[in-house]
Amino acid sequence: MLDLKIIGGMLFDGLGTEGRRADVGIKHDRIADVGDLSAAEAGATIDASGQYVCPGFIDAHSHSDTYLIIEPSAHSKIYQGITTEVVGNCGASGAPLHGEYRMPSDWGDKTYPGPWCTVAEYREQLEAAQPGPNTYLLIGHNTLRAGSMGYDDRRATPDELELMKKRLRQSLEEGGRGLSTGLVYLPGLFAPPEEVIELARILAEFDGIYTSHMRSESSRLLEAIDETVAVGREAGCRVQVSHLKATGRENWHLVDAAIERIRSARDAGMEVASDRYPYTASNTDLDVIFPSWVFDGGRDAAIAHLRSASGRSRIRETLLKERDEDYWGTITIGSTSHPDNADFKGKPLLEVARRLDLEPVDAALYLTDSDELKTGAFFFGMSEENMWKILAEPYVMFGSDASLRAPCGPLSHDHPHPRAYGSMVKFLRAALDGRTVGFSEAVRKSTSLPAGQFRMKDRGILEAGKMADVVVLEPASLNDRSDYEQPHQLSEGIQHVIVNGVPTLSKGELTGRRAGRML
User: Is the peptide bond before 96 cis (omega within 30 degrees of 0)?
Assistant: First the structure.
């Protein structure tokens, strides 16, 4: 007898084949059968007539590491049909926590049920919280570097590099699955390629993956791809180019060459893939626009520069030299920290500057200073044509580049990018409406493609014997509601979400039952 069967739906198996009428039977945490199950007995039945049945969607680029501990229901992800999150991206991971390392400000200002340091201890916290989605953890290079040698602009000593390698190996033994870099962030931006290669060599012992927020996504995009591919070639590991894009109108023409470089690496036999979200604005801290010397010594040093007359003047002079007048019109403010800045959330920087009676550059300096570098921003610097071109590449998978949020509770007070609530549904809606790849291919890019690239055994495909991560959606009502002004809005159209055989969303409502695992 089946525990659950899903009948009457149009099944998309995750392999890119066209949908077909088939039922799905689930027993315990696995798919027991796929086919005509009208005669099969089951403890519960979902009638999916007029709906689509898909493998659980995999968010190949998430930042929910610590948020899963304090909001395990993962509203924004579950309501998109996301059953697995790849966390620890862009060089920052929830563990291991050593030395001078300080978590990103949006993680660090939250309250957690208890402390942890190692990946094993983080895993205990995660499992105690019983999150809704599965978790696949990457180990952040910035986390390792800051924890082993601080935030100074210098090369690691031989002893410091050995300490990073020791901690990476331990983290992989305790459940980490790969290494991520964020080479535009502290302190990874100070690391030479040789350091990254030396660390990545360890991945081959664990069949681990190397993912990278590259050193440039603008004028030096091609050189950054060459560096990323070289890490995989020298270290002998799989490579994931994070959120592939060309930022800045003057760099849009580089996308074709960037795609060709990845194709060439794949043609040469390398396992190189990428991920992307379906928006033309990126989201990160506003201080990412500052020159690298500002961060030598870490956040406290950067704040000191901002608050000294000479340092602030030097930052201002550099920004005006490097950014033309039009650039400031591409920035919208996201989250803020200081209460006096709350009204600026979701507002264009130019509007903020007018309200403060400041030049745009000075408004940016004011916000980062008063918020102590905790100002988020949306950067509208990408081409929509390029976005769809990248998403159409067969090796490019879905990735939200967002941590989970919820419309209530501790994760409801900031001002996130709408991708946190809408990425997956926006991509599927575009597929249904004929604005990108076909729906079956969009499903493949969100299921079996990332499952294969990240070596998630028995996931991403609807067939007997595979893990029972299943989504039932209503195509007619599928809609992402989140936007830049009002981001905390759940997506619509996902009717049922089953994780490891447990119904987590039923008829569009959370059940309170959660069965996510650390993969």
Answer: yes
Rounded CA gap, 62 and 195, in Å? 25
For 422-464, how does the pLDDT look when each residue is reduced to its tens digit (9 = 90+)? 999 999 999 999 999 999 999 999 999 999 999 999 999 999 9
Cα gap 519→508, rounded to integer Å: 26
Exposure of 27 in the CB half-sphere (CA atoms within 13 A) = 10
DSSP 3-state of 398: strand
499 near 83, Cβ under 8 Å? yes
Phi then psi dihedrals of residue 370, to 5 deg: -65, -30
Q: By CB neighbour count within 10 A (0-12 exposed, 13-18 middle, 19+ buried), where does 8 fall? A: middle
Please name the residues in contact with 366: beta carbons below 8 A apart, sequence gap of 6 or more: 356, 358
CATH topology for 57-280+381-453?
A: TIM Barrel (3.20.20)
Reported pTM: 0.96
According to CATH, the topology of domain 2-54+463-482+489-510 is Urease, subunit C; domain 1 (2.30.40)
**How far does CA 196 lie from the centroid of its chain?**
21
Whole-angstrom distance, CA of residue 290 vs CA of residue 270: 35
In the chain, the N- to C-terminal Cα span, in Å, equals: 28
Note whether 31 and 25 are within 8 A (CB).
yes
